[in-house]
Every structure is written in structure tokens, then in C-alpha cells.
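Contributing new records

If you add data, match the layout below exactly. Sequence lines come first and carry their own label; structure lines follow with theirs. Keep one chain per record. Anything else will be rejected by the validation script.
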Amino acid sequence: MRNSTRLSAAILPIAVFGLSGPALGQEITPLDASTRFLIDSALAVFAGVSAVLFILAYGLRDIGLARVQNAPAACLRMLAAFSVTIFAFWLSGFVLAFSVEEGGFLGEFASWAAADDDPLSNGRASGAEWFFHAGLAAMAAAIVASSVSERVRLWAFLIFVGFLTGMIYPIAISWVWGGGYFISDWSYKDGGGATIHIVAGAAALAAAFVVGPRPGRFNAKSPWIAATTMLPLSVFGAGLAWIALIGVFAGLGDTFSSVEDAIRFGGVIANISVATAAAIITALMLTQFVYDRPGLVTTMCAVVAGPVTIAGDPVNPDLWQAAMIGAVGGVIVSVTPPFLARFRIDDAGFVVPTHLFCGIWGAMIVAWVNPDARFLGQAVSALSIAIFVFGVSLMIWTALKYSPFGARQRAPKPPEGAA
């Protein structure tokens, strides 16, 4: 009898907890407005730091791809580009991006100033929001720097960065996130930053076209590529860039202060992971089939191409759709670099395929996974942004080429036998 009583006493709390557990799990109290403000402001700061990490990661990536004597110049470009971006985005970029009228084309040229008189209505601290978007603009500058590595003049590049982050990039994103023409009239959807990659890739294509190839790159019967023993450093940089992009995706989600937000971001991470894995496997298979050996550089590019392909809408795809989207990104980074080489376009960081082509693909395929998007609207918007950025960048780089600054630095002669 005594043993029976003890058993009942032990079972009763377990039974009560088991029955009440599901109910307790559902009773999650929503956060108050002040707590949401603190969390979402911290999220913006975290996402901005992730954007800075992306810049540093791309610097490592460039060092690994470049010859040893050009590594210090790559580091200097990244640091200087970030500094110029901060001033350009303060003096004109932020206000230009977010002051455009609904359906309009051009915002106001004015400097940014903190506005926290009614902080809870903004959702985030204004300084945190500015820092995050300045980091995104600096990402675009870092991508362009990678394309023209080893032969661009520093001051010419920094002048272009001022135009890119203070005018070109802000105008482009004002049409999307600022409520401008493409989101208003074409219902363009970009939930994960595909526009950033399209802008950066188009600007990089214009820069590589005007600045020209590295010395000796296309003088041989087969294109000459500088030998480097630091490719593992590039792979490490690509991996850091992938991690940084996850933080950027979190910031572009605007909020992270509810259970639904956490569930949504969990799905985003799963989609990014599957898309990246599919891009890597596809690149491995294609390079093995075409070149009889897996290509490390192509696979490294696929690491970044994966999240870029899913950037248009990282929330809505099913996992199998994310895998298909990422696999196409693996094809893009595998087959398009030789196509660019045919036109003597020397994209040193392989950023045109990784960011421009994969970014356009990621923007257009949104219509497949998001019922609110239209393929025509996605295609017209993405291609129009790319054409606008390429055209304006081409004019600026051409002007720099014939200015006293010049666009191209004097580089050391290539090794014997390269020409």
C-alpha cells in the first residue's frame, strides 16, 4: 500500500506537467514596444557588423587570388573604400535612398541626421538603421574592388566609390526599398538584397571593361592566370562572406522580436544552406566533367553564389526549390567566366558571374516561389537596374580613364613566358 502511494505521488506531477506542457508552450507573452525597439535596433547593428565582416572577408578573398606583391594594395582598397562609403552615405546616400516619393525616380540630395524624437514609431534607432544601410553600400564597393584587383589606381577607384555609394547605389535601392518606381509600378519583390548584388555586379562589369585586363592576361595563346599559393586564404574568406551574408539577411528582415520572426528566419537559414550546398555540388560536377578535375576557384565562387541566388526571396521557397535555384547558380559561376574571357573582360574576383548574373537570376526566379510576384515585373526591374548602373558607371570610369588621375596603375611585368 505504501509503495502504491509513493508511485502515485511520483506519477501525478509528471502527468500534470505533461498535460499542461503544450498549453504552457503556447502561452508566450508578446513583447512590449520598448523591448521590440531594443531588439530590432540591436539586430540592425548586428547586421551592419555582418556587412563589415563581408568586406573584410572579400579582402581576404582578394589577397588569396592576387599575387603576393599586390596583397597590401588589396587591403588598402578595402579599408579606404569603407571610409569613403561612410562619408558618402552620410552626406547624400541615405537620404537619397529613402526620400523618394511613391513611384518616383529621384529622392533628395541632403545629408543624414539622427531623428529619434519618436523612436518607437520608427521601430529601430535611426543611427542603427543608417549604419546597417551604410554597411550594405560598402559591400557593393568591396565587390567592385574585387573585380579590378591588381591594376586599378587607388584614387580613381575611391572617386568612383564616392559616386557609387553616394549616388548610384542609393538611387537604385530607392526604386526598391525606398518605395520608388519599380516596387510601386512593377511590384518588384526583393526581400533579401538581390538588388545589392545586381548593382555591385553591374558596376564591377563597367569597371573591368574600362580599366582593362591585368598585364599579360590575354596575350598568350591560352589566357594567362597569375599563380598564387594563397587560395586556401581565399576559400576561408569566401566562407566568412557566406556567414556574413546570413547576418545581412537577418537585418533585411526588419524585425526579430516575435516567435513568428524566429520561425521565419529559421526557414531562411535552411533555404540559404540548401541553395549553397546545391551550388557547390553543381560547380564540382561541372568542373569535373569539363576539366577532368574539380575546380577550387569555381567552387569557392559557388559558396557566395548560393545565398545570392536565393536573395530575391529567401522566405517562401520550399527546400527543393531552394536547391534548384542554387544549382542554377552553380551552373552560372561555372560556365560564364570563360564567356567573359572571350570578350577580354578580366574579372579578377569572378564577381560578375557571382553577383550580377546570379543576382539577376535570383530576382527573376522570385516569381516562381512568391505568388505576389510577376515574372515580367521581376525581369524588367532587375534588368533595368543593371542597365542603369552599368551605363552610369561606364561614363564615370571613362571620365576617370582620361582624367589626370587615370584609371589604371602601372603594374609589374608578367613572368617570362606569360606573353
